[in-house]
Design brief:
312 residues; TIM Barrel; disordered C terminus
Length: 312
């Protein structure tokens, strides 16, 4: 099985000019749960003055539906973020180590080495809590300030963080520059130093995201980040637009013979709704317009219900 991890409520919304209040974000997450997706990156615990779209993370986590089998994760960058995540009752944390010194200092205010040390402290903080941790190596393929990211640096970071301990490793094409051959090459390098489950975070900035997704899964990646409608990007990197759309990658993988959880019609419906909530005339995902082939079961047009009962 290939797992789709819905990151629209976090990485999707953080790059949008419209700021949704916590109640709307709770509605968004509830509609994702109803679509059958079970891992959702719901919030980030970062400075609200830098990422106002993520303000009210505690309120969001207090209102999301608690459904058996659904896991909520939060992006964290430091120990303070972990403290907030623990208090808010998240199931997973996603800790980012950027593979570029310049980008790391601009985005997180720290060096690569200090970020790795911070993650070691985070592991101690969550020990015994039952909370899973993912380490995302950001800008693993390229940096807007330094250019191509050397694979040797990615390998070194992976080796160091996995010695500290992690439940999952993710490689992020933060600015959407990778091509399939580079994705496969990076996976081979990572596999030389760890057997951890691999996850990939891809952007479609240069129209290579879906080809990269299929190449990654073929090379053994078991989880892919995606956002409904393809909303999102990185607000701290020039032109880093376009997560791969959940509905589009679901179509690609399922038609390619992979087992992927999620109700296609419901996911398309969510993509339309969030696009409308953000003031878009249409979202980036292609399947919103094209639909399934050879014939869709339905063409939903309703907006997701406002809230969901946990018993549904």
């Amino acid at each position: 099985m290939v797992q789709l991890i819905e990151v629209g409520p976090r990485d999707g919304l953080q790059n949008e000019s419209a700021v949704l209040d916590p109640d709307m974000r709770i509605d968004y997450i509830a509609s994702i749960v109803r679509s059958g997706l079970t891992r959702i990156e719901a919030v980030s615990f970062v400075r609200e003055d830098r990422v106002p779209q993520m303000a009210g993370a505690e309120e969001v986590m207090a209102g999301v539906p608690r459904v058996a089998g659904v896991s909520y994760s939060a992006l964290v960058l430091n120990a303070r973020g972990v403290e907030r995540a623990l208090a808010a009752g998240v199931d997973e944390i996603n800790f980012v180590v950027l593979a570029s010194e310049t980008f790391s200092r601009r985005n997180q205010g720290t060096s690569i080495a200090a970020a790795i040390d911070s993650y070691a402290h985070v592991r101690k903080m969550i020990a015994g809590t039952g909370i899973r941790s993912t380490v995302t190596v950001g800008a693993a393929f390229g940096c807007p300030f330094e250019g191509d990211t050397p694979l040797s640096r990615v390998r070194e970071i992976v080796a160091r963080v996995t010695q500290t301990g992690a439940d999952e490793l993710s490689l992020a094409d933060t600015i959407g520059v990778a091509v399939p051959a580079e994705v496969v090459g990076a996976i081979d390098v990572v596999r030389s130093v760890t057997t951890l489950p691999l996850r990939m975070h891809l952007h479609n900035t240069r129209n290579t995201g879906y080809a990269n997704a299929l190449a990654a899964v073929g090379a053994g990646v078991v989880a892919l980040d995606a956002s409904t409608g393809g909303i999102g990007g990185c607000p701290f990197a020039p032109a880093a637009t376009g997560n791969i759309a959940t509905e589009d990658v679901l179509y690609q993988l399922r038609r390619s013979g992979y087992d992927v959880r999620g109700d296609f019609d419901a996911i398309v419906d969510v993509g339309r709704w969030i696009g409308s909530a953000l003031g878009k005339t249409r979202v980036e995902g292609m399947l919103e317009s094209a639909g399934w082939f050879p014939s869709p079961n339905s063409t939903p047009s309703r907006a997701p219900d406002s809230r969901v009962d946990a018993a549904e």
